[in-house]
Amino acid sequence: MQVSMVNIIMWIVALFWVFPINKWSIKYSKAKAWCISMGIWFVCMIVFPLFILKPKSAIGPVIMTSILVVGLNALYQVIYAMISDCVEVDCLVNKVRKDGIFYSMATVSQKIAAAIGVSILGNCMDKIGYNGQLATQSLATQHGIALLFIGVTCMCLLLSIICMMTNPLTKKRYQDVLEALKKKEQGQEINIEEFKDLLIIKMKR
């Protein structure tokens, strides 16, 4: 029942995180909005389990999940907002917009990643000796769960932040793409080499 209540509260709070994420995306960029959101999640994963959460404390997990849910929001809000960017960049090379393909790829890849992640997590829980029938897990199992919960999550978050920070499609470059597409629609020639940092260009032999 406690897990259900935490999830209910977490996703209610998640509705309010939509607005700051949207503001960060407009004011800075979608990539920076991602980094801010995942950075908050990263800090929560370090601070709360190590310094704030206490045994038999009910309010701690609620506060923690209410803050880190900003990262879960970004998983969908920012990623799906960035799909349109990919479509625009693809239009620089192709004459036909492929919105459906990109959205389908994003949806399918998220589901595949979730399935693989759950499978890996289940195997890891078995390896560390987790037994759902026990009221209290062994000390080694508790340490293993903490390592998975804190260490692996933080590693994945840090990797995602690094990937976004090195994303070449900045806010300025996106405006360049839109201007180039406008010229292309008007029948003007564009130099695709100017966007080689955003594209994998097949060189002619």
Oligomer: single chain
Number of strands: 0
For the largest beta-sheet, the strand count, sense and barrel status come to: none
Query: End-to-end span in angstroms?
Result: 64 Å
Compute the number of helices: 6
Order of helices and strands: HHHHHH
Name the average pLDDT. Answer: 90
Rg from C-alpha positions? 21 Å
Which characteristics define this entry?
75% helix, mainly alpha, single chain, 205 residues
Explain the overall architecture:
The protein is mostly helical. It has helices spanning 2-27, 30-52, 59-91, 99-127, 139-165, 171-185. Helix 3 (59-91) packs antiparallel against helix 4 (99-127). The longest helix has 33 residues, at 59-91. It is elongated and about 70 Å long. The mean pLDDT is 90.
